[in-house]
Amino acid sequence: MASLNVIVRFEDVSFGYSRENPIVDEASFSVRENTKLTLMGQNGAGKSTIFKLITGELKPDKGNIHLLQGATIATGKQVMAREHLTESVREYFAHAFPEVPYNLDKRIKDTLEVVNLTAPLEKLIGDFSGGQQARLLLAYALIQESDVLLLDEPTNNLDRDGIDHLTMFLILYPKTVLVISHDADFLNSFTEGVLHLDVFTGKIEKYDGNYTDVVEEIAARVERDRAKNAQLLKTIQDRKDKVNFFSHKGGKMRKLASKLRDEVAQAEENMVDVRRDDRTISDFQIPSQPFVDTIVHLKAVKVIVNHEPHHVPIDLTLRRREHVLIEGPNGIGKSTLLRTLAGGHDPDAVITPGVKVGYYKQDFSGLDFSQTAYASLAQMMDQPDNETIRRTGARFLLNGDALATPIGALSEGQKGLLCFARFVLQEPGLLIFDEPTNHINFRHLPVIARALNDYKGCMLVVSHAEDFVKHIRFDQTLDLASLIKK
Predict the structure, then answer these.
(1) Are the C-beta atoms of 152 and 48 separated by less than 8 Å?
(2) What is the three-class DSSP state of 35?
(3) What distance in Å separates the CA atoms of residue 477 and residue 486, rounded to the nearest whole number?
(4) Are 223 and 233 in contact (CB under 8 A)?
(5) What is the pTM of this model?
(6) CB burial readout 137-164, b (16+ within 10 A) else e
(7) N or C end of the chain: which has fewer CB within 10 A?
(8) What is the pLDDT of residues 174-201, one digit of tens each?
């Protein structure tokens, strides 16, 4: 049957940016046509690299990657490339084709309908919200009507309606889909198996079942392997003790010692290479600047409805210890409000001079991608201290190699953790978060929620992650949609 054809096959594939630390080590797996799989692994494991190997953007150091003859591939990327921000919708989608089709406008409108987005084709990409850009990235992949669809964190920045719409589309999608995501509910709704890439070994293993089942299966296997190793270690130590005793005896005792050495060697060979499951960042605190005056004053906000801005007067004064959740659907102006406030160019949205501001941008554009992670952390300190920088980096799983890496070469998850490490060293009076859960491994989110809950400065948060938000104390909610109804 055609549906059983293998469309992607890795045959003993190895790849690494350095010989000492291969991202993929002798990986062998296959993906059949019309299947929907999750690509799972720790932050920085190299999941996006696997996608680049599949598309041919990267070539393996060893082994072979086979694609079904004639198969086409499209990728829905995590973040809009900066060079597209100044292009119109029409210009952006034209890049999806070797030759621009005569009916491009109709195809764009039809595809945008699939991702539940209505947009003027002349509007610039940079004028869309983060959630709207996420839909554009997805539509860019869908419009190509490819045989293999690669989706990299497709739910980032999407509101609940957007996620539900995407889920239904993928359930009905008749072709092959590989998805990178940390959203368990989303993955469980349509995927039927998992490819697990281990950051420590570079190995890839394939599992059948939904995402949650596989996570539990891997955890159970880890515990079984640890128990087996514990028993083997006990046996090895027992044999070694006897070897030490018998080797000093003569005759048959010495022969017995030799036999026991062989048993020790055999037991050591049988030790299981235990998978080191995801490490979770340790609990941390973000110290706050002791600022006693008003920190933020909002006299008006710009609310966008059907791509039209509306100037809405409000009167909101915020001080230390006040936490505000900003709500509203994609495209209504939440990110614009945060960007305007942080930019300091609007007299209706003012941060008091002297307040230190920590701003988590959903696309990490506030980071200098040419800097090393170490230099980025050092920049947050009045007097950089090597020990403090390295200790803080390690707390967020940024080891020596990661700290020496240019930020642009870090995974999206590592960039997110770097932002939190910067805030710890910065000690801000105001924290501004625009979708802080994007790209972050779900294991870290409870730790981050506790840190934000305990933060004693002023804080503004935009997030569509309901399970994350419900664990944080908010003094009030600013619902932009309700403002326009008044």
Answers:
(1) yes
(2) coil
(3) 16
(4) no
(5) 0.66
(6) bbbbbbbbebbbbbbbbbbbbbbeebbe
(7) N
(8) 899 999 887 778 888 888 888 888 777 7
Edge-to-edge strand list for the sheet holding 24-32: 24-32, 6-15, 62-67
Angstrom distance (rounded) from CA 455 to CA 320 = 10
| Block residue for tokens 């210890």 | 321
Q: Which residue has the tokens 């850009």?
A: 133
Q: Are 354 and 331 in contact (CB under 8 A)?
A: no
- The secondary structure element, H or E, covering residue 166 is helix 160-172
Domain spans in the chain, listed from the N-terminal domain onward: 2-72+146-215, 296-485
CB–CB of 374/407 below 8 Å? no
pLDDT confidence bin for 1, thresholds 50/70/90: very low
What CATH fold (topology level) applies to the domain 296-485? Rossmann fold (3.40.50)
Largest CA distance in the chain: 98
The third-level CATH classification (topology) of the domain covering 2-72+146-215 is Rossmann fold (3.40.50)
Mean pLDDT of 140-155: 90
Start-end of H helices in 204-330: 211-246, 252-269
Q: What is the DSSP letter of 321?
A: T
By the 8 A CB rule, do 457 and 289 touch?
Answer: yes
The residue written with tokens 């991202």 in the block is 23
3-state class percentages of the chain: helix first, strand second, coil last, to nearest 5: 40, 20, 40
Question: Whose CA is closest to 441, among 391, 376, 396, 386?
Answer: 396
Q: How far apart are the C-alpha atoms of 343 and 406, rounded to whole Å?
A: 25
Q: What is residue 249's three-state secondary structure? A: coil
Quick one: tokens of 455?
């933060």
Nearest residue to 415 via CA among 440, 432, 433: 440
Question: What is the total residue count of the chain?
Answer: 486
Cβ atoms < 10 Å from Cβ of 456: 14
Amino acid at 284: F
Question: How does pLDDT run across 256-272, given as a tens digit for each residue?
Answer: 656 666 666 666 665 55
